[in-house]
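Entry 0007
Protein: Phosphoglycerate dehydrogenase
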Amino acid sequence: MSQTIKLALLDDYQNVALRMADWERLRKRGVEITVFNQPFASIDDAAQKLAPFQIVQMLRERTAFPRSLIEKLPNLKFLALTGARAMSLDDKAATARGIPISNTPGGGSNASTAELCWALLMACARDLAKADRLVRAGGWHDGIRNMVVLEGKRLGVIGLGKLGARVAGYAKAFGMEVVAWSQNLTEEKAAQGGAKLVTKDELLATSDFITIHLVLSDRTRGLIGASDLAKMKKSAMLINTSRGPIVDEAALIAALKNGTIAHAGLDVYDREPLPAGHALTKLDNVTLVPHLGYVVEESYRHFHEGTVTNIEAWLDGKPINVINPEALKKG
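Output (structure tokens):
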């Protein structure tokens, strides 16, 4: 391909993408790179700004790529997806257009998300976000409500896969009792993951902390609703580093307002970035962080270096890591 190829790197909020890989390899092959470091205002805004580009790199699920956007990008020829999958990408629409999607599988440990989950849990247990705000404002102890030691408490893990099991291991190291539930979890798998299998209702009713580690799907969307939150202890704290829609957001806001549960620690939301003035930002019994689970240098380097390699392979006419091989037959 001798003509200039335009590549868009999306959602580089921290302005780090260009130092995370050797992009010069692509520039030498006539690829012109443009970085977008702000979210798009709408699908129409994204369509207008991305219309000239043949290649788009999606940074996980930050910008959604539904059919309505894909159909408005006449020049799009290749999608570079960071991570293994993105529920917000309509791969069928891309396939229908003959647009291959190459991902960056692997990436090593899930420690970054597990560690963030544990940091959120500890911050909630001791009201650390509020404590930080107090000290900066000239205050001291007044207003701090959470004074919970982890040792001896029960952690309920919803979803005991590799990530949930890693968090369960952290809990054991802190002297906590760990129980777990998910739709297909067995006693044997629970034991292997360092937990005791219980029913969903028992987990909700008896856990001091509850942490969610499930993939968002039709089966898990809205899995934790108002009736589930009502079963939890009033002193319980809920941690979500998976996906926002697994928990009914309106029900969670109501539960926090009404004191149904004591506190929540959230890294994920129904809409991201979380809009200014959102109801969650007005509550002082929730600790909020901006979807930082995978936001570490090791992950970024894997994503961006993998993108360079995937684009090189596509330019050579031999695409790799293609998750929709049917598109190659149409291209």
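Curator remark: The chain has a mean pLDDT of 96. The two ends are 15 Å apart (CA to CA).
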